[in-house]
Write a structure and sequence with these properties.
The protein has helices spanning 10-16, 18-24, 30-39, 91-106, 159-174, 185-192, 197-200, 248-259, 278-281, 303-309, 354-361, 367-372, 383-391, and strands at residues 3-6, 45-50, 53-67, 70-82, 110-114, 127-128, 131-138, 152-157, 207-213, 216-226, 229-230, 233-234, 236-245, 264-273, 291-294, 296-300, 318-323, 332-337, 340-343, 350-353, 376-378. It is of the alpha+beta class. It has three domains: 3-108, 3-Layer(aba) Sandwich (Aminopeptidase), CATH 3.40.630; 133-293, Gcn5-related N-acetyltransferase (GNAT) (Aminopeptidase); 300-391, SCP2 sterol-binding domain (Nonspecific Lipid-transfer Protein, Chain A, 2-Layer Sandwich). The strands form four sheets. A seven-stranded mixed beta sheet has the order 1-2-3-4-5-16-6. Strands 8-9-10-13-14-7-15 form a seven-stranded mixed beta sheet, sandwiched between helices. It has a five-stranded mixed beta sheet with strand order 19-18-17-20-21. The two termini are 31 Å apart.
Length: 403
């Protein structure tokens, strides 16, 4: 019989990585395990044990997530896997049950994740909450539609000195961008700025560029260069891991820096917001090869607390009849509006499953789009439009890294 238990030691944590490592084709080295422990202690991991061996695991980081108008303690779900020897035995469901119960006990109203497969998490109440963009284009077609001269100065920083200067930039952007989470110093050192050989693949070392406007640090870029030549012709590429600017001018300037690096023929980036300004900055947006995929998925663990934690635009409230089979404490009718969130016995305006709330929560998908996809039932004429008005956000949600 499989037993689901919280990990209690570093050895347990090491064993819990066995299932996810199986699918990546290699077991983690001690350095990876120690790095993971800095940002996800053993007690945040549930492991499935069978006859003394871990056959499945699910962990979560402790995040402070930016949501429209606020911040919410959130479980950043990761390392979820079941060995192929134990698939289709209900182990994943047991781990999800234990994990969401633990989130509720810890007072984390939300859980969110990047899905390895987009068919897994809907049945546990997660809804696709954002889109993520990829670009891959040639530098010789990277001219901007209009270049606005700015007094910018760019400096290359040693990774050991970068956190102090770039973390405040990230914090300013994260505080205003739904979907981003606050980074601790441990996260910066163990994750964002860590550059072990096993992370590089065939690419070069992680490079950090700091951009100053008017002498003030305003943007940064983390990137890897992969040089290549074909009979003397430059064929190299730059992969942008993260480029963040705290203003439109800073964002334009840091991308202009990246696009002007010599010896590189192509520039790629894989986790960009769907409304990234590059689409309108470049003169030939088609050349970006702007591709979309699903981004983060959101699960409202405590519907009342989660909905109350975000703000709403002025407008009339709506009553949403929520069905949540996996977390039945959320079942019921919820009045949502700029004046607050509460349970109600009034007749519902909208009816939906809890995963739909996850899709609408950060503003990634409008109620109109969800209704057009037949995921929402409008019970009162005009209710979808009212919900759109109060849930509206100024920017698309974005999480800049896959965790």
């Amino acid at each position: 019989m499989v037993d689901i238990k919280i990990c209690a030691s570093l050895d347990d944590l090491r064993a819990s990585l066995t299932p996810i490592s199986h699918y990546f084709g290699r077991q983690p080295v001690d350095e990876q395990i120690k790095t993971l422990q800095r940002v996800m202690p053993a007690h945040r991991v549930h492991a499935a044990w069978d006859d003394g061996r871990v056959v499945g695991a699910a962990g979560s980081y402790a995040f402070e997530l930016t949501v429209p108008g606020g911040h919410v303690p959130t479980a950043g779900v990761t390392i979820v896997a079941v060995l192929p020897t134990h698939r289709r035995q209900g182990i994943l469901r047991q781990m999800m049950r234990a994990q969401l119960d633990a989130c509720r006990e810890r007072g984390e109203p939300l859980a969110y994740l990047w899905a390895s497969e987009d068919t897994i998490y809907d049945r546990f109440g997660y809804g696709i909450a954002s889109l993520s963009a990829e670009i891959d284009f040639t530098r010789d077609r990277s001219r901007f539609y209009k270049t606005t001269p700015v007094p910018a100065r760019t400096t290359l920083l040693p990774l050991t000195e970068a956190e102090e200067l770039i973390a405040p930039i990230y914090e300013r952007v994260a505080a205003a961008t739904p979907g981003m989470f606050a980074r601790t110093s441990d996260w910066w050192q163990a994750r964002t700025l860590s550059d072990p050989q096993w992370r590089r693949g065939n690419a070069g070392e992680l490079t950090c560029a700091l951009l100053e406007l008017h002498g003030v640090p305003s943007a940064y870029a983390l990137y890897r260069m992969t040089p290549s030549f074909d009979r003397g012709v430059q064929m190299g590429s730059i992969h942008v891991a993260e480029a963040v600017g705290d203003s439109p001018e800073a964002t334009q300037a840091i991308w202009r820096y990246l696009l002007d690096i010599d010896w590189m023929a192509r520039v790629t980036a894989s986790v960009l917001p769907v409304d990234h300004s590059l689409l309108l900055l470049v003169a030939e947006p088609r050349q970006l090869r702007f591709n979309l995929r699903d981004g983060v998925w959101i699960r409202l663990v405590d519907v009342g607390a989660a909905l109350s934690a975000r703000s709403y635009e002025p407008g009339s409230s709506v009553v949403i009849d929520v069905h949540d089979e996996f977390c039945p404490w959320n079942d019921g009718r919820w009045r949502v509006g700029p004046d607050g969130v509460s349970r109600t016995e009034n007749g519902p305006d909208l009816r939906c499953g809890v995963s739909v709330l996850g899709s609408a929560y950060l503003g990634g998908f409008s109620w109109t789009r969800l209704s057009q996809a037949l995921r929402v039932q409008e019970l009162t004429p005009g209710a979808v439009s009212r919900a759109d008005a109060i849930f509206r956000t100024q920017s698309a949600p974005w999480c800049p890294e896959i965790f």
